[in-house]
Amino acid sequence: MEHGADLLTYKDRYDGELIDFSSNINPLGPPKGLEEVLIDSFKSLIAYPDIKYRKLKESISNYLYCDKDNILVGNGAVEIIDSFVISAKRVIITTPSFSEYEKRAIIHGKPVIKIPYRDDFTIDIDKLDVISEGDLLILGNPNNPTGLRIEKDQLLEIYGIVKKAKAFLVLDEAFFEFCPEDYDSIQIFKEYGFERIGIIRAATKFFALPGIRLGYGCTSPEWKKEIEKNQLPWSVNTLADAAGQFIFNDREYIEKSKIYMESERQFLLTELSKIEGIKPYKTHTDYILIKLLKWDEEYVFNFFLSKGILIRKCSSFKDLGKNHIRVAIKSRANNLRLLEIFNQLNLSH
Questions:
Q1: Which of 234, 249, 264 marks a domain boundary?
Q2: Does residue 2 form part of some domain?
C-alpha cells in the first residue's frame, strides 16, 4: 500500500461499509454550498478554463495574503512538486517521507540524496551540508507520515543553508491548515520575496476535496515563470477552478475545522497513549503515526480490516520497517470505534 484511500482493493474483505482511517481528509467534509457551485459550473465545461487562471489566483492570493504574481496552481500539490523537480540538478529528501518526492525525481532522471530523520523525527541540520548549487530540498511541513511540523527557528536555519548554497527549498504543506497557529510560513517568507523557496498547499486534505485535484502555492515571480514553463496547459479543470474561487472565502468553515481538529487530536492522542502495545507519536496534523510494540503491520492491518476499518501500513515509507501504522483523525464516533478495536487487539493476542 503506497498510498492510502484504496477502498476498492479491500471492499470484498468486509461485509459492510469500510471506515477509511488510511485517508487523512477533514472529517467535517467540504464547505457547505460547494455542491451548488459545482452544479452551476457544469455549463462551463463546454469551454476551456482560463489558461492563466486569473480569478482562481485572485481567490488564492486573498486567502494566503500574498500577491497574485507569487501564485502557482496545479493538478494537485504533486503536479507542482513535479514541476520543481524538473528544474533541479539533484533532489534531496528526508526519510521517512511522502514517496512521490523520490518517485518524481527518479522519473525525471534526477539523482536523489536521502537524509534520515533523527529518532524523534526532527531534521539533523548537520547532514544538510550535502546541499550544493542547483539542488532541490523537499520537506513535508508537517511531514507525512510523522505528522510533525518544522519548528520556526529551525525552518529559518534550513532556509539560510539553502540560500547560501544557491539551492532551492520546497515546503510541501498539504496538511498545514490543520496545524496549531503559531506561525504561517507564507507570511514568514513573504518578507524574503519567496527567494529560493516554494510553499505548496492543496484543497485535498483540509477542504476534503481529494477528487478535485487542486494544488496551489507561493514562490517568487521569477521562479513562478520557470515552473509554469514545466507545467501542461489547462492542468486545473473547470470544476476545480470554480471550487477554488469558492472554498477559500468560507472563513467560518476554516475556523470551525481548525478548532475541531485541535480538540479531536488531543482527545485521540490522550486515549491512544493509554493503550498497551502501541506508541502513538506526537502530531501537529490530522493523522497519527503509531509504533506497534507487539505485532507487525500486516497482522494489525488485517485485524482492523476484519472489524471494518482500513488503516495505513507504513513499511512503504523508507526507514520505518514493518512495525508502524498511520491512522487519520475522524469524527468522535469513528475515533471511539478505532479505540475500541485497539483494545480488542490487545485481548486477541
A1: 249
A2: no
pLDDT band at 296 (very low <50, low <70, confident <90, very high): very high
Taking the CB of residue 323, how many other CB atoms lie within 10 A of it?
A: 17
| Sign for the pseudo-dihedral over CA of 343, 345, 348, 349 | negative
What's the CA gap between 332 and 267, in Å, rounded? 9
The last residue of one of the domains, among 223, 249, 275, is 249
Whether the CB-CB separation of 147 and 282 falls below 8 Å is answered with: yes
Task: List all residues 6 or more positions away from 208 whose beta carbon is below 8 Å from its beta carbon.
Answer: 25, 26, 28, 29, 30
**For the chain, percent of residues with pLDDT exceeding 90:** 91
- Contacts of residue 175, defined as CB under 8 A and 6 or more positions apart, other chains included, come to 24, 142, 144, 205, 206, 285, 286, 287
- What is the C-alpha separation between 139 and 119, in angstroms, rounded? 17
Question: With 70 as the cut, is the pLDDT of residue 233 above it?
Answer: yes
Residue 13's pLDDT band, with cuts at 50, 70 and 90, is: low
Give the three cell numbers for residue 13.
Answer: 474483505
